[in-house]
Amino acid sequence: MGARAGGAERAVEAVFREEHGLLLASLVRRFGDLDLAEEVASEAVEAALVHWPVQGVPARPGAWLLTTARRKAVDRLRRDQVYAARLAALQVETDRSAPAPRADPGAELPDERLQLFFTCAHPALPAPARGALMLRCLAGLTTPEVARAYLVPQATMAQRIVRAKQKIRQARIPFRVPGADELPERLPGVLQVLYSVFTEGYAASSGPELQRPDLTAEAVRLVRILYRLLPTEREVAGLLALMLLVRARQDARTGADGELVLLADQDRSRWDRALIEEGTALVTAALTGGPPGPYAVQAAIAALHDEAPDLETTDWPQIVALYDVLSALAPSPVVALNRAVAVAMRDGAEAGLALLDGLAGEERLRGHHPYPAARGDLLRRLGRGPEAAAAYRRALDMAGTEPERAHLRRMLEAARRPA
């Protein structure tokens, strides 16, 4: 009995992790209340933990959870006189409306996660709340897990999520996919939230670790879902390609003790070739059929890095050309910084340093430690040790993770030594 109970518990956890966003989206669409949906989804999981060890795991576990959660929601609404009228209205609306479309003919439940993506990333919500809601509602992370993902206290994250839900109710943010005329305006916001989650996982902003693999995994999983839901949107393909091509290098970015390993020093045999092949195929799809989008161009740059056998033989002229395209599509000081580093690899440290010095007044680079770190690297290559040391010192003051700080301390000491 113990083994069976353990197996059922693992089955509940696996199903809930995979189906959580789908289950929650179906409940929100049916009842129009995110809090209610989360509560009855949790109650359905508790019921599964009671019944599945005895009755066995059902053939369609996701559908079982949805049916159970719906019944619990209806029971709760019937007991609450305040919601009686809402329940009646919901029943009339459900009877009149056609069944929700299925995104996948093999899916057990109507796939309404696309509406939930756009609800969580609605521009009316505060920016910090959008990623938190996506991780909470679509990835199925608990509030403590989301708090750890954003490196904030649990109470702070709980308040942030509560306020976001209140905003959804008070502003009457619709649970729907934007129309074809709205999609070009709204989709970039969804993609930006997902990319921000991935970036925080791949290059953490603070903490003892350089990377947060759990966070990158969840971001990739969410973008895979979005790509299945919007397979013809080329920028969705571009973002998925970018994430896969960057994530392919994840294991080689740190050494045995968690230290930072620069791109030039990475063991490229440790790069994930399956992810590189998948990402490269997606780059082709993202660049085909019209002008490229920013994520597709960034993915093309990542593909050139992943295809090169080493740093020296990387196609730096092509990378600079792609950064020129990206600068026209989505100009930013960070893009200009990355382009300057690529120019330094193509034309020499002096050329790259001149471009970096031209960015000295950019407000967005003031607290961005890669900027002074890049200047330090180029100054060191030019034999200007004291200036390089000063640049590394500034970068060290800004860096947030301990592996980055340890690397910058080593570079600072090297720059201080006599030539």
Automatic annotation (TrEMBL):
Signal sequence interval, chain numbering: none
Domain RNA polymerase sigma-70 region: 16-81
Domain DUF6596: 186-286
Pfam families associated with the record: DUF6596, Sigma70_r2
InterPro entries: DUF6596, RNA_pol_sigma70_r2, RNA_pol_sigma_r2, RNA_pol_sigma_r3/r4-like, WH-like_DNA-bd_sf
Protein known as: RNA polymerase sigma factor
